Amino acid sequence: MDEKKYYLGFSNFPGIGPIKFGLLLKHFGSAKAAWISSTSELEQVIGKSLTAKFIDFRRGFDIEKYEGELLKKKIDYIVLSDKDYPPLLKQISNPPIVLYIKGDRSLFHSQILENLRMIAIVGTRRITSYGRSVTDLFSASLASSGLIIISGLAIGVDAQAHTSCLEIGGKTVAVLGNGVDVCYPRENQKIYDQILDGHGAIISEYPPGEPPSVGSFPARNRIVAGLSDGVLVTEGASDSGSLITANFGLEFGRKVFAVPGPITSSLSAAPLRLIEKGAKLVITPGDILRNFQLPISNFQSNKNDPMFKNLTKEEKKIIELIENEPMSFDEIIRHLDLDSSKVGSLLSVMEIKGLIKNSGGSYSIVS
Predict the structure, then answer these.
(1) Band of pLDDT at residue 157, cut at 50, 70 and 90
(2) Rounded distance, CA 165 to CA 201, Å?
(3) What is the pTM of this model?
(4) Residues of the chain with CATH 1.10.150.20
(5) Engineering a disulfide at 285: which of 98, 108, 141, 279 sits with its beta carbon 3.0 to 4.6 angstroms away?
(6) What is the Rg, in whole angstroms, of the alpha carbon atoms belonging to the chain?
(7) Domain spanning 3-61: which CATH class is it, in words?
């Protein structure tokens, strides 16, 4: 039996994760040698209690049969020793033993051969209209420039990042905190299906059928950061799970980017905290592309482009107000009859979209 198949066996035993598996590999030299080793040998590495549980598990687990079940479910897998195991992920201190994959496995091979960039876009589940607009802009623009968008399929920013990428025909990878054959949360079943319909891959270190747990999401976040060349946080509170992903990014030496939001919003806290810690402040997708020394696409548009035809009612009003002459913030507030925080959010989003610019306190359309 091939060496890599023994990785499947260990990935299904709940008592041995990446760290203990690493110790076994170091001691025995191979997954096969560790799998078939004696009780006394195993006890030297993982202790008596865990060894007893593993022996019982090993006795009842048929690796060949399990691999056949994966094939029937159209689930592929990559193990740590494979040549097309994602190179950036392999560099982290505790890489997954196995990556289970539904969808396009070639994305990871292309990352090696073609040096394709992958960027994680993460943020709050309680997304605001500002966060939705910003996430949409960055995801669509970066995907149109050839970057693969990675996120965690959660509701909120994750879902928007995947959706915006899919809408422009880009490639996206969803990393789950459960088995790849289970769409979680169920609200994102449509996104899950679209990704599998030729637009990317669903991956996880957890075996098929494994339900999510409290601890599986932080573990999932380390994979999101580990796979990526960079991590972008578009919106999140001070306790946002996106900070876990971003902090993993900083720990792994990845580029970390943050979009500043309205200072009146609690969901601007995560990006602002990251900027304080050294994350790069970005206000346009071009800022990220330049950081990666990649060409800037023509996705960001001027007044005659489709972006100007898909404005909200408030955005249209602002464009009409400043179409012929610049206006100050206070003047725009008076004409719109909206509170200042709402207008501030609208103007910030429109600046990030590349629709308007602020010159000396006056707003005008980008020519």
Answers:
(1) very high
(2) 13
(3) 0.83
(4) 3-61
(5) 141
(6) 23
(7) mainly alpha
Alpha helices by DSSP H, the chain? 3-12, 18-28, 31-35, 39-46, 48-60, 63-72, 87-90, 106-113, 129-144, 157-167, 189-194, 216-227, 242-251, 269-276, 285-291, 313-322, 329-336, 340-352
The Cα-based distances of 297 to 172, 186, 233, 275, 338 in angstroms read 18, 34, 21, 26, 34
Cβ-based neighbour number of residue 302 at 10 Å: 13
CA–CA gap between residue 240 and residue 269 (Å, rounded)? 9
Which of the four CATH numbers 1.10.290.10, 3.40.50.450, 2.60.40.10, 2.60.40.420 does domain 98-291 have? Answer: 3.40.50.450
User: What single letter denotes the amino acid at residue 257?
Assistant: F
How is domain 306-365 classified at the architecture level of CATH?
Orthogonal Bundle (1.10)
- The DSSP secondary structure of 156-205, one letter per residue, reads THHHHHHHHHHHTT--EEEE-SS-TTS-SSGGGHHHHHHIIIIIEEEEES
Phi and psi at 300, nearest 5°, equal: -70, 135
Which residues of the chain are in CATH 3.40.50.450 domains?
Answer: 98-291
52-108 per-position pLDDT tens digit: 999 999 999 999 999 999 999 999 999 999 988 999 999 999 999 999 999 998 887
The residue count for the chain: 367
Edge-first strand order for the sheet with 362-365 is 327-328, 362-365, 356-359
327 - beta bridge partners? Answer: 363
Beta-ladder partners of 122: 233
Q: Give the residue-averaged pLDDT of 282-301.
A: 80
